[in-house]
Amino acid sequence: MPILIVGAGLYGTVLARALADKGHRIHIIDQRNHIAGNCFDEINAHGIRVHRYGPHIFHTANGLVIDYVKRFADWHDYRHRVRAQLSDGTLVPLPVNRETLRHVPQERVIDIFFRPYTRKMWGVPLEEIDPSILARVPIDPDAPDDYFPKDPFVGFPIGGYTAFVEEILRHNKISVALETSYRHGMEERFDYCFNAMPIDAFFDFDLGRLPYRSIKFHTIDLPVSRLLTHPVINFTDDGPMTRVTEWKNFPGHGNTASWTSLTFEEPCADHENGFERYYPVKDRDGENRALYKRYHERVPARMRFIGRTGLYAYLDMHQAISSALALADDVLS
Ligand code: UDP
Asked: Which domains occur in the chain, in start order?
């Protein structure tokens, strides 16, 4: 019997391909009308590539993952350089380095760069968020002007993420059904089910909801060639937006001279955005993790939860791939 995978995001598709390569028949369903999950991208009316669910910059130091992604796409080389905008409009490097500290004294760094942004992003004071989240953006005077300095591989698939995921799925043992939601019992026709749906939704929220942060994306198209000096600018103010992305500033994302497209991000709770779940909330006290574990203990035999919402984990793309490959190895052995 075939294997069912719920969710055609990166985790599910990488897992599907690894199992299909070993001869298993895989059926993937996804409730959305497209593959690629939250890294889905498309070309807009002005010929500019936009990531529908916010900017996805692929970065990794994992050799296995680098080899893997090169199998399915050629990649644009890239180094991600971000600026933060201060209250007087000055743009300074982020993560905070020596150049940033020429503009902001060390003792004000947390209050300027982290406190307002984290409040907007997570909806709670910085003290309530697990420190590992803030540690994603370290403060280091010696750091280069680079958002992912430890990752030798940073880039975008030539042709986009959607085409990259399509390539992963191009296998005669994989079938995909879009606009198809999981229904209880559908796994009975399968040997096994890997499930990327929100684990609390699977159990009809009977122990309560796992909270997520969502983002409202506000995209504007303007009849000018280019507006920003950098692809991403983070805001340090108390307003609702965390950052803006100018898509053309990423390699391979469009080169029309007459238009540019920008997307502003306004974080909110998932219930304020139609339960679009983007970021699991890792609270400092681990309460959400504890609730996840209570759900996890009840997962039926022959089912395993995967992906950001199935694992309730803040996985980057490279982590989704390495985790999916490790799971496939584990299952196959
Ligand atoms: N962060 C911040 N100020 C910034 C950038 C990040 O306070 O200018 C904090 C914030 O809590 C954020 C976390 O660091 O959620 C991780 O940032 P990252 O850029 O890795 O987030 P992502 O790109 O995944 O949304």
From this structure: 1-35+169-205+282-333 (3.40.50.720), 41-159+212-280 (3.50.50.60)
Mutate to test the pocket of ligand 1, among 57, 91, 114, 264 (most ligand atoms within 8 A of CB): 114
Residue-wise burial string across 122-152, b where 16 or more C-beta atoms lie within 10 A, e elsewhere? bbeebeebbeebbeebebeeebebbbbbebe
* Closest CA to ligand 1's atom 9: 134
pLDDT digits (tens, 9 = 90+) for 182-231: 999 999 999 999 999 999 999 999 999 999 999 999 999 999 999 999 99
- Sequential DSSP letters for 19-66: HHHTT--EEEE-SSSSSSGGG-EEE-TTS-EEETTS---EEE--HHHH
The CA 1 to ligand 1 mean position distance, Å, reads: 43
Distance 215 CA to ligand 1 centre (A): 13
